[in-house]
Amino acid sequence: MTTKGSFEPVFCTIIPPHVLDTLSRAEDRALAGKARRTLERDALERTHRRLTTVLGAPALAPPSGAPDDKPHRTIYDAKHRQDLPGKKVRGEGDKPGKDATVNRAHAGLGATFDLFLKAYARNSINGEGLPLNATVHFDEDYNNAFWNGEQMVFGDGDGEIFLDFTIPVDVIGHELTHGVTQYTANLTYFGQPGALNESMSDVFGSLIKQYALGQSAAEADWLIGAGLLAPRVTGTALRSMKAPGTAYDDDVLGKDPQPATMDDYVRTGRDNGGVHINSGIPNHAFFLAATALGGNAWDKAGKIWYSVLTGGALDSQASFSDFATLTLAQARTLFGEGEELQAVTKAWEQVGVPTG
Length: 356
What we know:
Blueprint: E1 12-13, H1 17-24, H2 29-55, E2 73-77, E3 87-91, H3 100-120, E4 132-136, E5 145-147, E6 152-154, H4 169-183, H5 191-213, E7 223-224, E8 239-240, E9 249-250, E10 254-255, H6 271-274, H7 280-293, H8 301-310, H9 320-335, H10 339-351
Parallel strand pairs: 2-4, 4-6
Antiparallel strand pairs: 1-5, 2-3, 5-6, 7-8, 9-10
Helix pairs in contact: 1-2, 3-4, 3-5, 4-5, 5-7, 7-10, 8-9, 9-10
């Protein structure tokens, strides 16, 4: 794998451990049991991820003669078991079948490929045409989706708190963007660099949804995981980039803990130092910059963020301030001293992150 520096064995899930921890303590034993089962499964997958890093993952290459401007997708069905990848149910070029989950996974992989290729000239996750593989119907009542360094995996949810994890296209884009980070800046998955890692996935997950829907920055909802929460949950999504801390406030899940500015930065040893929590701060900075600039968010703000992530200057241990300073430099390089630089500068000022 062509990653920057030493390889970091990151196991990335869309549902943060702190959410599942809360759910595992629910008075409803059935709900709590499913959450604990998911946490246990995640722990096993995390160990597998670490071992794969030590032993080496199998090399994946696009098929001979595959065009550079087309994805190569394969969808597998785990049939509610835990063996990966499962049975192949749809390949590239195959017509949609009757399983809506399979079709959504296939479309989501394609939407992710399209955004990175057409907006940033990146050929798949690794820039070299990496095949995009995904497994659906993983385990029973599995409340998560993850990128394991080699492929995507989707649970069906428990139907009570979480629905099918292929429903929000930004969830698919979020997890696959962890692969882009893996092959580029390889941000350490702890503390501020870990929160930046999560934020990159939220940023590009949101851009993938916006690109697929043809939405401008003003039209976008800036929610991550809208449509994933079951009707009984009091909330709209997993996270809000527009208003961090407001995505949900539920008697079972608790309240969305994300801060919007450094004034409320959360210092914790949980969740790898709060990677899913403090990511709200750089998320909000991106929202502020993108909406200030208007138009399509992937054109200006997205290009600046992408250039920093992939440009080679971003250290794997980067702080929020390190990243912010690089975005100003890239804004100046790409667009000069105009409105783009002003919007990015103001965005970081509003969230309280210094830029050198």
